[in-house]
Amino acid sequence: MLQVIYSEEFLDHKTGIYHPEKPARLTAIVDALKTASFAEKITWKLPTPVLLKPSLMSWIENVHPTTYINKVKNIAASGGGYLDGDTPISPRSYDVALLAVSAWLDGVDIVLNTADKSFVLARPPGHHAVIDTGMGFCLFSNAAISAFYALQQPEIKRVAILDWDVHHGNGTEAIVETHSEIAYVSLHQYPAYPGTGKTSQQGSHHNVLNLPVPPGSDITIYQPLWERKILPFLTDFQPDLLIVSAGYDANANDPLAGVNLQPEDFGLFTEYCLGITQKIMFGLEGGYDLPSLAESVIATIQPCIG
Ligand SMILES: [Zn+2]
């Protein structure tokens, strides 16, 4: 079974009506899940409120310096502003970003403490946030924070982060690349924003696998990369938990990139993941064409429901 972690508070991170990373992304997915054929097999959960998770700040501070965390807090408190040209902070963005991290940690707890999988429907996304600043629509590194959080459990020795967002997760990679107990795998368009993710970037412990694909790539390019590169790499790594940075901007209809995947292709990706481990959580990253975004989340979840 699968638990979806979602709160309407995630709609309160306001980015402006012309910004692609908008609240309607979440409501499109929620509407699709409520009417999906498997709707009754999903359990909906609210994220743990920030005030009820005393350790939350320490997990964020484990990755980001307090100077940066306070910068986000202060920009929000002063009425909002921008971290960079495309990364706005609205008055509630700081609180919402903390709640998003809480939701991702809940996603870890569900997978580690039950037989269920989890899908975290939160925003803002996180994979571009580097140690000392957010960028590219992202404020805090949800996936990396979650990986370190999972590793606190003695029985969790290795965590893999698989990032199928069309953009390279430069932030996630920068944070985890020196940690041998965390693997980072990214499939991304190259060249594209943010310009990182070359094959030669392999991490300090050969724990990073970057698989750039050219614009125009479709499933016939992705499938061999899964079968010849990702599956051997992750099978060898043997993760106790697989965190999927689930972005859906590699869809053909997506306005922000030029890769030509179809929503059903993400169902195949989930099938591949299930061949590695049953301990899987998904967390939303990008994806900006609302119909294909919603269809892709449905396709991702379907194989988990059985
Ligand atoms: Zn993206």
Automatic annotation (TrEMBL):
Protein name in UniProt = Histone deacetylase
Quote any Pfam family the record assigns.
Hist_deacetyl
Coiled-coil stretches are: none
Q: Which Gene Ontology MF annotations are present?
A: histone deacetylase activity
List the PANTHER family.
HISTONE DEACETYLASE HDAC1, HISTONE DEACETYLASE HDAC1-RELATED
Listed under GO biological process in this entry are: epigenetic regulation of gene expression
Family recorded in the similarity comment: Belongs to the histone deacetylase family.
Question: What InterPro entries is this protein classified in?
Answer: HDACs, His_deacetylse_dom, His_deacetylse_dom_sf, Ureohydrolase_dom_sf
The Histone deacetylase domain covers which part of the protein?
19-301
